[in-house]
Every structure is written in structure tokens, then in C-alpha cells.
Amino acid sequence: MIIDIPLEEAKEISRLDREKMKAYEVEPGEVYQIKNRRHLKPKRCYEEAFRYMSKCEHPDKVVLVHGLYKPPKLNRYAGHAWIEINGNVIFDGVLQRFYKKTDYIKYYEAIEEMRYTKKEMFSTGLKNGGHYGPWH
Q1: Which of 16, 70, 82, 120 is at 20 to 30 A from 114, Cα to Cα?
Q2: pLDDT for residue 135
Q3: By CB neighbour count within 10 A (0-12 exposed, 13-18 middle, 19+ buried), where does 31 fall?
Q4: Mean pLDDT of 127-135
Q5: In this predicted model, what pLDDT tens digit does every residue of 99-125 receive, in sequence order?
């Protein structure tokens, strides 16, 4: 379920979440870092997760996840995509930050629905018309 809210509202929610989540940020290691993480990417979770995954040089250590999350200010579930690294770190493409998985899941009450390897991501995306998701 994708909730269509105005871009300005999505920016505000993302800004507040990034501020509140600051305490849960982690450094994933040099090999997983990305450049230019300053800007928020509201309403682009599927695209940003796809981009991160497609550029990842260690595809055996990362998984694209499609599921649901509930930002506290939104107070309802919405479709979302994120990257799981080594089973314990989350990259959120909207917030452009890395978080400890347990804290991220708890904060957003995130529900995982589908997991994709890099190869599955490309083939499933192609089968579904070439868009970034969701595909389930």
C-alpha cells in the first residue's frame, strides 16, 4: 500500500524521522558507504533502494527488502523499501543513512514482505515493467 501524500508533508516527515533516528545511526564500513548523503529523498524509497543495490559491489552481503513501515508522524502503514546489509544494518534511501536493524525495525514497526537478491531484483523489476517497485 503506497500512501499518496503531498511532497512537502513527506519532506517534513522525513526530516523529523532523520532527526529522531540520529541516535541509531551506524557506519556500515567503507565498502558500503555512499557519496553525497546530505539530501533527503522523500517518496523515492523504491528508487533509492534499487539504486543502492545496483551499485553494490558485494551483492552476497546485501538484500533489497520491500515491506511496510509506519512513520510516527504519519501514524499509519505505508509501502516502503530498504536495504539490509550483513543481516544487521539497514540503509534507508529516503533518509540516506545507515541504522542498526533492530532499532530501525522497532522505530518504524517495519514489516518485511519480500526480500530480493541483486539478481532477483533485476529480473523481478524487468518482469514487472522495469519500475523500481513494489513488485508483490
Answers
A1: 16
A2: 85
A3: exposed
A4: 83
A5: 999 999 999 999 999 999 999 998 888
Residue type, 90: I
Amino acid at 34: I
Q: What's the alpha-carbon Rg for the chain, to the nearest Å?
A: 14
Each residue's pLDDT tens digit, 2-22: 568 899 999 999 999 999 999
Number of residues that make up the chain: 136
Which residues, at least 6 apart from 32, have a Cβ–Cβ distance to it below 8 Å?
A: 56, 58, 62, 85, 89, 91, 98
Q: How far is CA 83 from CA 8, 35, 77, 132, in A?
A: 25, 16, 18, 13
Residue with cell 557519496: 35
- Asked whether 2 and 43 are in contact (CB, 8 A), the reply is no
Do residues 118 and 53 lie in contact, with contact meaning Cβ atoms separated by under 8 Å? yes
Q: Which three three-digit cell numbers place residue 98?
A: 545507515
User: Residue 101 carries which side chain, given as an amino acid letter?
Assistant: K
Q: Which residue has the cell 513494489?
A: 134
